[in-house]
Structure formats: structure tokens, C-alpha cells
Design a protein that fits this description.
single chain; alpha/beta; Rossmann fold; Hypothetical Protein, Haloacid Dehalogenase-like Hydrolase, Chain: A, domain 2; 2 domains; eight-stranded mixed sheet; 9 helices; 14 strands
Length: about 280
């Protein structure tokens, strides 16, 4: 079998946010690598925000900050932050709509209001994975300490879809606004993010494939949210988790079992990538 490049989102794909990857998922990825396939994280998180239990699985590299930073076998092959003027334009629009926002930088996140995160006590076993990730993220630094450091992307929490729509109208076509379906009725937040439209997981996936001289048709990608859209479309096989919304599932070539049901492991074995060759 020709060797493949495998790409894995973290939250809602490898593990339920706030929990560790299952033994089945860990063993399947390690088995795939033993069989000669290469595995990469492909996450909206910054490199420093990847949980240690995820790192310990063992990967050949990673795509971080939703495509802004790419590391392959210890070598950084892409490090692309958002132009300062675009970041300031986004920040201004979010402030006008009174959104809770987080500027995602390489080794720390700057957040507008830490007190608004009291909702993090809700049931983390269900609902939108990106909302959970934002509410659970650690190492938050107050905006008062932000001094125009480079930004990969800006995440936000809104109470109303109308706020997001108005913010999007203030921005030009150089940026992409993504809001994630909120599956938790009792939580008054809609999670989303704004990024440079030319920086995304799909172009980063293609960069990794080019690095190894392997056509992107030989890649397999797993995701669960709208920020995985380009990755799913650009991969040879785009696989969406069973816990995804119908909007996201429509983008994928396949839909597997949910994260809670070890969908990644089941698919790797089903495709013959894990287990005996």
C-alpha cells in the first residue's frame, strides 16, 4: 500500500474537549505510523496550547493556529501571521459589537474579559467543540498586556447571530468569518473565529504534502467543525466525525463514528491504515 499523510483535528476529533484521547485512538494512530504512514496534528490551537496527552501520541509534525504555523519533523516550514492592519480592523469591529474575543499569538492568548468565562462549568460532554475549546483554553492574558504582537487569528464569543452578521459587514473580503453551530441551548454563546482568508488548514495541508513530494490525493484528514472545511475539501479523503453538524458533514467524503465512539480509530482500521499490513 502506498503510504499516506494523515491529518487530525484535536477538539471533537481526537478527543472531547477537556478529556484525553481514548486508548483506542492513541493505539490506532501509533499503529498507522508503524505501518509507515505519517501523522500530523491539524488544529486551531497554537502549538503551545496542544494538551500534553495529545502530544504524547507521537506525530510527524503539526499544523497549528488553523494553518498559520506548520512544523514538520521539527522544522518550521510555514509561519504566517495576520497582517497588523487586518488584525486591527477585526479587533475594532469586534469591540463595536461588544464581543468577547481572544487574540491568538504563538505562546499566549490575549483575551478581552476573563470574567465572562464563568460558563465554562457547563457539561463538556456534548455540544460544539470550538465553543468548549475557547471556554476551556488556558494561559489567557488580559488585553491590557497586549502590545501589538503578531496574531494568527482572532476567536470570539457572541450572544446573538446578529452581532456576528453586523461584524462581518464591517469587514472586507480579505478575511473569513466562521461561526460554529451551538448545540448547547442553555449557554448564551456562539463561538467563532476570524482569520485571513488565505490562511487555512487546507493550504497548510497542501504545503505538507509538497514538502514530502506526495500528492494531496494521498492524504486523509479528520475534522468536525467549519474551520476544518478547506482541509476536508483539499485532502484526498476528507472524513467528518459523527458528532459534526449536517453543514459540516456535507463537505466530507465520508462520515465516521463520533469522537466518543472512537471514530478515528475505527476509520484507520477500516481503511487498512492501522493494524497489520
Amino acid at each position: 500500500m502506498m503510504k499516506r499523510l494523515l491529518f487530525f483535528d484535536i477538539d471533537g476529533t481526537l478527543a472531547i474537549p477537556g478529556q484525553t484521547p481514548s486508548k483506542e485512538t492513541v493505539n490506532a494512530i501509533r499503529s498507522a505510523r508503524t505501518n509507515g504512514h505519517k501523522a500530523f496534528l491539524c488544529t486551531g490551537r497554537t502549538e503551545g496550547a496542544v494538551p500534553s496527552k495529545v502530544q504524547e501520541i507521537g506525530f510527524d509534525g503539526g499544523i497549528y493556529s488553523a494553518g498559520g504555523r506548520v512544523v514538520v519533523e521539527g522544522r518550521t516550514i510555514l509561519d504566517q501571521t495576520m497582517p497588523h492592519n487586518i488584525a486591527q480592523m477585526i479587533l475594532s469591529a469586534m469591540q463595536k459589537e461588544n464581543l468577547l474575543f481572544t487574540l491568538e499569538y504563538s505562546n499566549r492568548n490575549y483575551q478581552s474579559s476573563l470574567e465572562s468565562l464563568s460558563a465554562a462549568t457547563f457539561d463538556m460532554s456534548k455540544g460544539n467543540s470550538e465553543l468548549q475549546r475557547i471556554l476551556l483554553s488556558s494561559k489567557q492574558t488580559p488585553m491590557s498586556q497586549y502590545h501589538n504582537e503578531p496574531v494568527y487569528k482572532i476567536s470570539f464569543l457572541a450572544e446573538l447571530q446578529e452581532q456576528i452578521d453586523r461584524m462581518a459587514q464591517m469587514l472586507d473580503n480579505t478575511v473569513k468569518v466562521v461561526s460554529f453551530e451551538n448545540l448547547i441551548p442553555d449557554i448564551p454563546f456562539i463561538a467563532g473565529e476570524v482569520s485571513d482568508k488565505n490562511i487555512h488548514k487546507g493550504q497548510a495541508l497542501r504545503r505538507v504534502c509538497k514538502y514530502f513530494g506526495i500528492p494531496s490525493e494521498m492524504s486523509v484528514a479528520f475534522g468536525d467543525s467549519m474551520n476544518d472545511a478547506e482541509m476536508l475539501l483539499d485532502a484526498g479523503i476528507g472524513i467528518e466525525m459523527g458528532n459534526s453538524s449536517e453543514q459540516v458533514k456535507a463537505l466530507a467524503d465520508q462520515v465516521c463514528e463520533s469522537c466518543a465512539d472512537n471514530g478515528v480509530a475505527a476509520t484507520l482500521f477500516r481503511l487498512g491504515l492501522a493494524g497489520p499490513v
